[in-house]
Structures are given as C-alpha cells and as structure tokens.
Design a protein that fits this description.
The protein has 180 residues and is of the alpha+beta class. The chain is 34% helix and 32% strand. The chain has a single domain (3-168), classed as Bifunctional nuclease domain. Helix 2 crosses helix 3. The two termini are 21 Å apart.
C-alpha cells in the first residue's frame, strides 16, 4: 500500500477525556486529517520538541536522537502503518553503515524522534482511508484551505510557547498503558 506524506499540524487535549491527541494532515488533496490519541509523557516530549526549547535534562527522545546521530544512523521516515484493534502501529525506517533497517514503533515515539531529527512523516493510504477524515474548511479553493491551515499552525505554535512540560505530568513513563 502506498505511503502518503503528512505533517504534524497539532497537539491538542481532547475536551471530554483530557487525553492528548496528535493531528496529522496529508500534504495533498483531499488533506485528510488523522487523529491519534497518545500518552501524556509522549505529548510532553513532542510539545518540548515543537517548542524548540531544550529541557534542563534530556528527555528519552532527546537521548534517542543523540544516539542516532552519534552512531551515524539516518532516520529516513516514520510511517503510521496500520490500525490493529483500534490502536495505530508505526514503523521507523533508517539507514546505517550496515544498510537499511525497519523497526516497529508506537506512532508517538516515532513522531517524537522524527520532530527532533527533521524526519519526514507518512501514513499508509489504507490507514487514512480507514481512520482519516476531511475537515470542512470554509472557502471553496485550496488557497483558502492553505491559509486556514497556516493560521491553525501559527495558533498552535503560539500555544506551544505557553506550554510547560510539567503541565503534561511528572515526566515519568508510566508504561504503554494501552495507548497508541
């Protein structure tokens, strides 16, 4: 199945449950959006990376990024590959002096690492077909849609500037707890 390029357009707190939610949006029309619930620790890690600020001590994903860089490994892509029993799965594709490799990962961990390394994000077409949706944006043309998305991204970046990683919990990894 074909992999479709996406951008991380948002990290939100779902209003009814208080659970962190990632929003991925495909680059091209019809610009489907894929919401993925994630854990608090992963949300805090992603928020810190998006803010561009370095915490006083490296977070787990900062350590992973440092290891990747120091071991001469290049993370080529992160792809949300499937939905199994309501949980998203992902794969991290990387190359090293020993060749190309692919590892299974939780989407939130792969995305947290990708943000730090500038790695492109993808979602399989079948996942977007199953779980993605087109969000109705006022306006009839793509230019209006792009302006609206740009405004959403700008608003989100402003929101990130006000975040404190402590807002997402104590930073300890409580385990997988069935999220992702």
């Amino acid at each position: 199945m074909r992999a479709i390029a996406v951008d991380l357009i948002g990290l939100h707190i779902e209003t009814t449950t208080g659970a962190p939610l990632l929003l991925l949006r495909e680059h091209d029309m019809p610009h489907r959006v894929l919401p993925i619930f994630i854990g608090e620790a992963e949300a805090a890690s992603i928020a810190v990376a998006l803010s561009g600020e370095m915490p006083p001590r490296p977070l787990t994903h900062d350590l992973m990024a440092a290891l990747v860089t120091s071991l001469e490994v290049h993370v080529d892509s992160v792809e949300v590959t499937d939905v199994v029993d309501g949980a998203f799965t992902a794969a991290l594709t990387f190359s090293s002096p020993s060749g190309g490799h692919r590892l299974d990962t939780r989407p939130s961990d792969g995305i947290a690492l990708a943000i730090r390394l500038g790695t492109p994000l993808f979602v399989s077409e079948s996942v977007l077909d199953e779980a993605g949706s087109v969000i109705d944006v006022s306006g009839d043309d793509e230019t209006t849609d792009d302006i609206s998305i740009d405004q959403e991204v700008a608003d989100f970046r402003s929101f990130l500037d006000t975040l404190d990683p402590d807002d997402f919990g104590d930073g300890r990894d409580p385990g997988d707890a069935g999220q992702d």
